[in-house]
Design a protein that fits this description.
heterodimer; A: mainly alpha; 3-stranded antiparallel sheet; B: alpha/beta; Rossmann fold; Alpha-Beta Plaits; 4-stranded antiparallel sheet; 11 helices; about 35% helix; elongated
Chain lengths: ~280, ~300
């Protein structure tokens, strides 16, 4: 009941954030544009039209144009959700720690671990609601208007939400330690870039310094932090293969598995740290 | 039975670069508060009043010492279920209405959803926010937020209510209403722990007070015990004192002041009182009444702080 109370409150707070309202608006515009614009050609049902103009053949040899479109929408959604998601939710933990707010919360019969986890889950759920809205909307339109019920696209939202749950563990611990929204936003952005750099370390960061200790340190960082970039990339692979990328990689569960452990560790550390602090 | 008892409760903070500086927020504070009383904690800024309440509600962890609140050791969920708290600078989510704020905090207290709405309206009416229940709190003035804070602190029918500056920002009529409400709650058996700078208010409603300075309790007692100046008396005489008698009385080492038939005397020792009475009666002057002089809590507090700071 208490956990649920804090969870519901945080979801409400998250979806009222200006940045996420903006994301919701953009998602709605894209959904409406597709609802109004996409369809089959009246002369050739194999041709996909956009606002009446022929776009491409569905059964183009060597390329699935529907999957290509869905992959683009998936990438677009991820870009926006990372951008707006960070602005939208990075301040939730430092906001909770502000004088006058934290006093009230901690005076209630709610364990600190419950409070923190309800807050984190609420923040992620706010993001998830936005993502599900967009993915479900696009999936329905492609199904209804083109007759393509692409379950891979719909299921990819689960992987994106999971990636955000893992990513938020970094935002949580940074927010708890710095107690600053500004720092949390900056460090969350920095982490999303670092995650990308660590993913490509063998062809990038390794070359900066040819030292075994440095290389192992990068490896340790890669496995000790959520593999955001790898998870997001993999989430697109359940949709299909981009016809313009030669020999694209296969889907793997490994980044999700590794990130499960690093995320659990970070949330565990956050609870431990939060329980020991004076406010 | 005690509602609250602390034994040598101590809180030290570390601050500065590398946390090398030790700050004493509270030092061995031992207090006991009976159930059903209104207890006031006074002290200058930084004395440790808010830290004391935060320790009791586990918002801050003690360095050493023990405490029980309503029979529960610190940190227990059962303790918080029976306490209400109005912090000094509270912030409420601006996107919620007053009634939604009440329902939210009711949920955090684990109260049943069904009963919460009625209770929220009842409490908002009780604190004078009847017409504001559906207005978002971001539109509230400071005084209105203070009233909302009080209603929020009462949502779980607390047995012990901690109020940190409850009348801060409230107009004089509102202050009177809050005082009346606290007295009513006391009558219903609620123990009230009050932190306030407004000494006149403390004087009006508190049964007992403690004075905290630099983290230490320097005085505790009832208002009467603290404000009664034990060695200063006002003696009402049957007739004015003659010049001759004045000279004789002034020859003693007492501090004397005359006004018509009133004699104000400050003694070094209580036994000196008999000597004055004997002198007056030997001169044929009758004694109609004799009372110990009282001071205001504010005067007492200021004098005490001056003395403490000169040490």
């Amino acid at each position: 009941m208490r956990f649920l109370g804090m969870f519901r409150f945080t979801v409400g707070e998250t979806i009222r954030r200006g940045t996420l309202i903006f994301y919701f608006g953009i998602a709605t515009i894209i959904i409406i544009l597709f609802a109004l614009g996409i369809g089959h050609s009246t002369t050739d049902p194999d041709i996909v039209t956009i606002f009446g103009s022929p776009f491409a053949h569905i059964s183009q040899p060597g390329a699935n144009i529907i999957e290509f479109l869905l992959l683009q929408l998936h990438s677009l959604s991820i870009f926006w959700i990372i951008l707006f998601g960070i602005f939208g939710v990075a301040g939730l933990i430092p906001g909770m720690l502000e004088k006058g707010t934290i006093d009230l919360f901690l005076s209630k019969p709610l364990a600190r671990s419950e409070l923190l986890m309800a807050r984190a889950l609420g923040a992620v759920s706010g993001i998830a609601i936005n993502l599900i809205y967009f993915f479900l909307g696009i999936w329905l339109i492609f199904g209804v208007k083109l007759g393509v019920w692409h379950w891979g696209f719909l299921s990819s939202v689960v992987y994106v939400v999971y990636a955000f749950v893992c990513f938020f563990s970094v935002v949580t611990i940074v927010g708890l330690i710095t107690r600053s929204t500004g720092f949390s936003i900056m460090l969350a952005f920095a982490f999303s870039i670092i995650s990308w750099g660590l993913e490509l370390r063998e062809n990038g960061l390794y070359r900066l310094w040819d030292n075994v200790v440095y290389h192992r340190l990068l490896d340790a960082l890669y496995y000790l932090t959520p593999q955001l970039n790898a998870m997001l990339e993999n989430s697109s692979r359940v949709i299909g293969k981009n016809p313009f990328i030669p020999s694209p990689a296969e889907f793997t569960y490994m980044p999700y598995l590794y990130s499960f452990f690093s995320t659990s560790l970070l949330y565990g550390l956050s609870v431990w740290y939060f329980s020991r602090q004076d406010y | 039975m005690e509602a609250l008892q602390t034994v040598d409760l101590t809180k030290h903070y570390r601050s500065g670069l590398f946390k090398r500086k030790n700050i004493i927020a509270l030092e061995k504070v031992s207090l006991s508060i009976e159930q059903g009383e209104i207890f006031g904690l006074l002290g200058p800024n930084g004395a440790g009043k808010t830290t004391f309440v935060k320790l009791l509600l586990s918002i801050t962890h003690p360095t050493s010492g023990t405490a029980t609140v309503l029979g529960h050791p610190l940190g227990q969920r059962a303790l918080k279920e029976q306490c209400g708290y109005l912090p000094e600078s509270h912030r409420y989510p601006g996107f919620l209405t007053a009634v939604d704020t009440m329902i939210f905090f009711g949920r955090l207290n684990g109260l049943e959803e069904k009963k919460l709405k009625d209770k929220a309206h009842f409490l908002l009416e009780m604190v004078g926010l009847k017409g504001w229940s559906k207005v978002k709190t971001k539109k509230f003035s400071k005084g209105m937020l203070q009233r909302l804070g009080l209603a929020q602190a009462l949502v779980n029918n607390p047995k012990l209510l901690f109020l940190d500056e409850p009348t801060d920002g409230v107009d004089p009529i509102g202050r009177k209403e809050i005082r009346d409400l606290l007295i009513r709650l006391k009558g219903e058996g609620t123990t009230i722990f009050l932190n306030s700078h407004l000494l006149s208010e403390i004087e009006m409603i508190c049964d007992r007070v403690a004075i905290l300075n630099k983290g230490k309790v320097v005085r505790t007692g009832t208002i009467s015990e603290l404000t009664t100046q034990k060695l200063t008396y006002i003696i009402q005489l049957s007739a004015p004192v003659s010049d001759d008698l004045r000279v004789r009385l002034n020859q003693s080492n007492f501090s004397l002041d005359f006004k018509d038939t009133s004699l104000f005397v400050t003694l070094r020792d209580k036994s000196e009182l008999n000597s004055i009475i004997d002198t007056l009666r030997a001169s044929g002057i009758g004694i109609e009444s004799m009372t110990q002089q009282k001071t205001s809590l504010e005067n007492y507090f200021i004098q005490l702080m001056k003395g403490e700071n000169e040490r």
